[in-house]
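Lab notebook, bench 4. Still working through the backlog of constructs that have no structural model yet. Next entry is a single chain of 501 residues. Request: give me the structure tokens for it.
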Amino acid sequence: MRKNLCKIVLFIASIMMMSSLSAQNDRATFGLKGNVTKVSADHGNYAVYPIGRNDWVRYDLLFSNTGKLEEVNGMHVTSESFAYDHEIQRDSQNRISKLSSVAGEGLQWVVFHYDDQGRVSSEDYVYENLDAGSEDNIGNTRYYYDDNGNVVKAVVYDAYDSTTNTVNYTYRKTDESGNWVERVANCPNLGLNNQVEKRALSYMDKAVAGTTDSDTTAMQTVPGVSPVTKQPTKRSFWDVFLGLLLVVALIFMIVYMVYILLIRDRKLLPKTIEDFKAYRQEHNMPEESSDAENESITPLFEEVFHSLTHVRKGGEEEHYFTTKEQIEGLRAALVQTLETAPTHPECVDLYNEMLAEYKTCTKRQFMGSKPYLIIGGIITVLMTIGGGLMALPFMLLNICGYYFASQETQFMINAKELKEAGSSGKSKLMTILIAMGIGVLFSGQSYKTITTWSDGTTSTDYDHSEHLVALIFGMIIIAVLAFFMFAVALVNFIRNYLIYK
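Model written out:
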């Protein structure tokens, strides 16, 4: 459940902050396969990329679960310019086109170019001196790939001394997702002589680290060495126990509601004298009921009548079914009448009259929150889009369980009305919580800043970020309420089907 809840929150936050969830997978820009969430150096060595004057840049990367780049070398990635952060720009296909950061007294950025297969074909390196107001081309790198999508050659141009060097890469080890964890770089002119580069990769659901000769967490591609399969992570006892408990509770709730709504009273039907005569013949009883049998019927219902709740209205006393005990007493009288099968017309009429009263008092109405159902449906659609069809059965059971568990019997409604409490207090609680969540959605404010410069000109800036924060938090509140609809349904089930309070 916690994992499912996390997926809901991540998906909603993503659609609020990104224009295209599926397109914004930045792992391909860095040649990564699978659900990589982190790339870091192993023992100080990692995939060095030359940028002019023999400077070296390495990428320690952090991705969200959806693949969006979040950090580079420990600094956050944003779409706006902030000191000590990386500013990111994207092309028309939502790929990273430019990544810049503060460097000395200026800015340094990398411009990415892609080939037809979506791989980075080249990178341009530019330095902007903010004091001088100039931009200098530092150099560029062109990449060449093998059939597995790994860089086998990087041609590096240094603009400062107009030199071009070629770095060749050979690969020693890859992990089970096909990402390399150890390779060798060679370029004597740049001081690379069988330079071993290692990196560690973490994944959404497991970690696959760079290996040494004794490690068994990654697959090796060295000839003659067999890959070792990584064992799946075991779920904890309490995760399994709580999951089974949830499934058992859900199955019990559904089965019991089906029994109450469809099975329990299916034999309580209107009867005629001929019906009772047929019943008596089936059970080897005399065709006509005896006087003693006929006389036993009326006291059954009189006893039920005396147990009813008596209310004086307008000088007259009225009687109501308001408790589970009263309605169960009426049902027991009906069942006993069926078993007696009286054939006297007055007894048959009394049975049918009391049966109609029973059906009226046990008829159920939905007394839950309709907005809660609507919100649950919306979240179900969003979960299906973000998490696939695996989330659909659970959320549909949530919605159906809440709807049927919130069905109250007429005698419960009568009891609330007689107490002048009504049935709106508890049934509207979730509506109020939903309203609070929607209120948070629209609680953000915009800020307008007017700056007057020394030459008399003015500029106006608008800050709408508070709206985004409010939108995300409001959607998270609503998503949590919808996700825990089952818990609300369970409470309503106990109240409306077991204790009838």
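Notes after review: The CA atoms of residues 446 and 465 lie 8 Å apart. The chain has three domains: 24-224, 265-362, 366-446+460-498. Flag for follow-up if needed.
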